[in-house]
Design a protein that fits this description.
The protein has about 425 residues and is of the alpha/beta class. The chain is about 35% helix and about 25% strand. Among the domains are: about 5-125, Rossmann fold; about 380-435, OB fold (Dihydrolipoamide Acetyltransferase, E2P) (Beta Barrel). The protein has 14 helices and 21 strands. A 6-stranded parallel β-sheet has the order 2-1-3-4-5-6, with helices on both faces. The chain has a 5-stranded mixed beta barrel with strand order 17-18-19-21-20. α8 runs parallel beside α9 (about 240-250) and α12 packs parallel to α14. The relative contact order is 0.08. The mean pLDDT is about 95. Bound molecules: S-adenosyl-L-homocysteine, iron/sulfur cluster and FE3-S4 cluster. Iron/sulfur cluster (SF4) binds near residues 156, 163, 165, 200 and 201.
Length: about 425
């Protein structure tokens, strides 16, 4: 039996895809290697969102040459968004790569591996308008047996000016709701206690009569002890109806990831985000009205085309106003083929992008710490996930707001819900004690 090893980069959707890839290839008779050094095929599932994501992958691919010299039969393939973006060009540039496979072509992988084993190269990069892999039961790879991803839709056609995803993932399509509920139920029966529904823009989920709020209602109905999370919401589509459904189900987690990208209306327009700062703040207010204990997190880009100091200051001001619990913060990276690549200048010098990014990071760090200090004395129901990285004597878990709590182990077990009182904190972690 030949063995495959999958390495995954990028967003949660890529991690979910790797579990589909593992399912397709184990069904075709391949075993899963525990280590890259024991594999016959290494599959690198890649991200193309920013240039540094691609550089990391190229570095890794080149590093694998040494392993290939020791194991002459070892073949390396590049999958996912970077494969879709670069297609066969990637094999020309990285000559130790034998195959490239885009995100909608994973069902072809078994044939591709046979072809590669015969000494040929293979490239499958066709995008689909219908593929959702709905019938494939993923092989849980990252498995703690407690928390799992469920991909509910694929693709994106929002065409934000900076973003490569519409080109690497194709048109938006939603997966049949029955298959989603079935997957959630199966996971719960297997002992899982948390599912995260995934899509580039989950609020535009739509399959027949089922929109995202209806789907959430169905999945939350599987069992009150199954926590339901979702990512990512686009601010333009965040409806009051969804907030109502969330409020009606305690097991839908009180955490909304709402990427803002910029606090300047001029930037938002140039980015083609289709909302204004006022609209965004109205959605934040709606979240706080329906779900007073909901945490809000975001993504932001520093140094997009023509961003002035005034635009940047507007972003800082928005951060002060919303007071996010967490933010993913990025420097703008120009991506070939996007609207911005064709029509907008990448005119903010690298050092200035870094300076602005660091300013946002410093501000957000202060806000997160202040938010966490307000948690002292609060008690939460925590889904225990496992041992803390620091000490075997401590466990960690998350509350509904997705904040990590670390506490002395006591008699708590992973996979169970326990009450924990917060006694201390850092900007990233709450530290507490079990409440008996
Ligand atoms: N679909 C999600 C985001 C997916 S990409 C959404 O629309 O919210 C994750 C994040 O990467 C984006 O929110 C954005 O902040 C960032 N990003 C995307 N393209 C980028 C680029 N070219 N340069 C820098 N950051 C980028
Ligand atoms: Fe990219 Fe915009 Fe689609 Fe998000 S919504 S994936 S940022 S194009
Ligand atoms: Fe990256 Fe593709 Fe996800 S570009 S962020 S892996 S959809």
């Amino acid at each position: 039996m030949e063995h495959i090893y999958i390495e995954t980069y990028g967003c949660q959707m890529n991690f979910a895809d790797s579990e589909v890839i593992a399912a397709i290839l184990t069904k075709a008779g391949y075993g899963m290697a525990n280590d890259a050094a024991e594999a016959d095929f290494i599959l690198i599932n890649t991200c193309a969102i920013r240039d540094n994501a691609e550089q990391r992958v190229r570095h890794r691919v080149r590093e694998l040459r040494a392993l290939q010299n020791r194991r002459p039969g070892l073949r390396v393939g590049v999958l996912g968004c970077m494969a879709e973006r670069l297609q066969s060009r990637l094999m020309a540039e990285e000559d130790n790569v034998s195959f490239v496979c885009g995100p909608d072509a994973y069902r072809r992988l078994p044939e591709m591996l046979v072809q590669v084993r015969r000494g040929q190269t293979a490239a499958e990069v066709e995008l689909s308008t219908t593929e959702t892999y709905a019938d494939i039961e993923p092989v849980r790879l990252a498995g703690n047996g407690i928390s799992a991803y469920i991909s509910i839709m694929r693709g994106c056609q929002n065409y934000c000016a900076y973003c490569v995803v519409p080109y690497t993932r194709g048109r938006e399509r939603s997966r049949n709701p029955e298959t989603i509920v079935h997957e959630a139920r199966t996971l719960f029966e297997q002992g899982y206690r948390e599912v995260t529904l995934l899509g580039q823009n989950v609020n535009s989920y739509s399959c027949g009569d089922t929109g995202f709020p209806e789907l959430m209602d169905m999945v939350a109905g599987v069992d009150p002890k199954l926590r339901v999370r979702f990512a990512t919401s686009h601010p333009k589509d965040l409806s009051d109806r969804l907030l109502e459904v969330m409020a009606a189900h305690e097991n839908i987690c009180r955490c909304i990831h709402l990427p803002v990208q910029s606090g300047s209306n001029r930037m938002l327009k140039l980015m083609n985000r289709k909302y204004t700062v006022e609209w965004y703040l109205d959605r934040v207010a709606a979240i706080r009205r329906y779900l007073p204990d909901c945490s809000i997190t975001t993504d932001v880009i520093a140094g997009f085309s023509t961003e002035t100091l005034e635009d940047h200051e507007a972003t800082l001001e928005l951060f002060r106003q919303v007071r996010y619990d967490y933010a993913y913060m990025f420097k703008y990276s120009l991506r070939e083929g996007t609207y911005a690549w064709k029509h907008l200048a990448d005119d903010i010098p690298e050092e200035e992008k870094t300076r602005r990014l660091n300013e946002i990071i410093a501000l957000q760090g202060e806000i997160a710490l202040q938010n966490n200090r307000k948690e002292l004395g609060n008690e939460y129901e925590v889904l225990v996930e496992g041992e803390s990285h620091r000490s075997k004597e401590q466990l960690f878990g998350r509350n509904s707001q997705n904040k990590v709590l670390v506490f002395d182990r006591g008699d708590a077990e992973p996979g169970t819900y326990r009450r924990v009182r917060v006694e201390n904190c850092t900007a990233a972690t709450l530290i507490g004690q079990l409440v008996q």
